[in-house]
UniProtKB/TrEMBL annotation, chain A:
<dbReference type="GO" id="GO:0022857">
    <property type="term" value="F:transmembrane transporter activity"/>
</dbReference>
<feature type="transmembrane region" description="Helical">
    <location>
        <begin position="95"/>
        <end position="121"/>
    </location>
</feature>
<feature type="transmembrane region" description="Helical">
    <location>
        <begin position="141"/>
        <end position="158"/>
    </location>
</feature>
<keyword id="KW-1003">Cell membrane</keyword>
<keyword id="KW-0029">Amino-acid transport</keyword>
<comment type="similarity">
    <text>Belongs to the binding-protein-dependent transport system permease family. LivHM subfamily.</text>
</comment>
<dbReference type="InterPro" id="IPR001851">
    <property type="entry name" value="ABC_transp_permease"/>
</dbReference>
<protein>
    <submittedName>
        <fullName>Branched-chain amino acid ABC transporter permease</fullName>
    </submittedName>
</protein>
<keyword id="KW-0472">Membrane</keyword>
Automatic annotation (TrEMBL), chain B:
<feature type="transmembrane region" description="Helical">
    <location>
        <begin position="84"/>
        <end position="102"/>
    </location>
</feature>
<dbReference type="InterPro" id="IPR043428">
    <property type="entry name" value="LivM-like"/>
</dbReference>
<feature type="transmembrane region" description="Helical">
    <location>
        <begin position="109"/>
        <end position="127"/>
    </location>
</feature>
<feature type="transmembrane region" description="Helical">
    <location>
        <begin position="212"/>
        <end position="232"/>
    </location>
</feature>
<keyword id="KW-0812">Transmembrane</keyword>
<dbReference type="InterPro" id="IPR001851">
    <property type="entry name" value="ABC_transp_permease"/>
</dbReference>
<dbReference type="GO" id="GO:0015658">
    <property type="term" value="F:branched-chain amino acid transmembrane transporter activity"/>
</dbReference>
<feature type="transmembrane region" description="Helical">
    <location>
        <begin position="29"/>
        <end position="51"/>
    </location>
</feature>
<protein>
    <submittedName>
        <fullName>Branched-chain amino acid ABC transporter permease</fullName>
    </submittedName>
</protein>
Amino acid sequence: MQFLVDTLLNAAMASAATALVSIGLALIFGVMRIENFAHGELYMVGAYVTWYVTAGLGLNYFAGLAGAVAVTALIGAFMEVALFRRLRSNPVGCLIVTVGVLLVLQTAMVWLFGINSTLLVDTPFPGVLKLGAVNLPWHRLFVIFAAIAVMGALSWLLRGTRFGWAIRAAAQDREAASLQGISIGRIAVYAIMLSAGLAGAAGSLMAPLVRISPFMGQPIIITAFIVVIMGGIGSIEGAIIASVVYSTFYTFVSAYIDSTIAIIAGLCIMLGVLIFMPSGLLGKAEKV
Amino acid sequence: MTFAKALPVTSATLAIALAALIPTVFGDYYTSFCTEIAITVLMLSSYRIIVLTGEWSFAHVVLQGVGAYTAAILAKGYGWPFPLTLPAGALMAATVAAVLSYPLLRMKGFYFLMGSFGAAEAIRLLWRKIPFFGGTRGLSNIRPPYLDLAGIEIDFGDPGNFFYLTLAIVVCCLFLMWRIESARIGRIWRAVNQQDVLAQSVGIDSRSYRRLAFVVAAGFAGVAGVLLAYAFGSITPNRFNLNFALYLMIWSIVGGTRTFYGVVLGGIILLGFDEALRFAEELRPGVYGLLLIGVMLFCPQGLERIFVPLVERLRGPVSSASPDPSVTETQQ
């Protein structure tokens, strides 16, 4: 019973973290048509910043969360202004530059904190919630609710505000949007800050639960790409649905069978989706 | 023969002659390193065949792995000699590529990139999982070839001898690739990349030609894999991971994919650079990252951008034999 509940909780938590990372990825693709390979590294930077602010500076966990979002959003803005903007006419160039950023961020963290760092972030919610025979760790519940809250806020931002309309308009048709007086350059900066901040938030939320290492971004970016492709590149709803489906499937298969088999099965599902629905599950859905 | 025509032949001969001196000039360590460079150059030039058709693939290193595993299993388990494992590895890699190409080449661009990654990673994880392939530890103790030609015995366990063997095979492969590329099929590959719709409208089935490129490239990658298995004496699934695939991509981009020698030069320069950075193993990826960003921003066609005008000037006025830059420029 406890094992099943643990697995379910882990699945929900993995879904939440994957969704936060992959909606950022879908958002940036929707608006700028860039596949950001460095997105997983922003997640990693988020975790490191949280550690630094809480353990290094001795501040509250929530200050760490805010710091993680701020730092990753700034890195995102820098990427857009210094790199992507200059390579606008060269989509493959953008993709390759994100690989460069990935390597630089990884190396920077190795250089600053070492390869085998044993960094621990204390959770603001220690202890477990006892419900009859099962135990639910508070922080895991917090991650799930925080992710849902962030996604709700994002949905309101995109659908209920002028800023959100501008982003969606830019994603749908860049030229028409700029004819309506929307500054594509400014929207691109905001969109990438939003996207990077989401990855940073996910890294910060997961920091107390996972081993922080310079290479922790790699598995999550691979999962996020699988999810984004399954959901249909650029579709945020698709990314969320695919996150839940894939993470639940993956967690259950790795808990009950084997984690390598879970990855292989996940990759085969992705290939299957690509073969039969080349634009993903919700590929034809409204972009962003 | 005009100077323009003689130049590639002369420079290639000179390069081969210089390369042949390596084992006598350097010690065993650097000779083995040069063997590695030769294998990587083969990998890069075969990768360029896919790039010619306008695609980037993550599966290429795993196809090299298919060649390596085939050779290792046949040599260790069934005692096949080197002259048989070499074509077997190439054939196996090409066959696997042909099978993979059916689902993968339904996609293009980024979807193809991710699809190739998915397929490659699935194969690599299977190697780790199945005991027949040696699991995570891979296969080791692959004996270097030993030749007995009517009394003349050559032991390729000696790094120098193995280097000559590798050099000979790599040069043959490069020559073959150069011939393929300058033949009609090479022009079709470029056409498929640059003007897909136009190419289709004149009756070229672009998907079959992209498939052909994928399979041919895999065959050469298989040869590189066989050489790799013998050069190191052991192979592990981790050797063919995403990082290696990324490096392959980085090397070809930094070198430049427009011309044949751009890739070759890029590979040699960057591997030398790699060796020079050995003292700072942990910082190496970051240096690569910065290099990649710099090249993309300031020299998007790669380092060959610097060499090409030089060679063109040496060649004099553009003859019909030399590639027209406006035609050969691969879309970035």
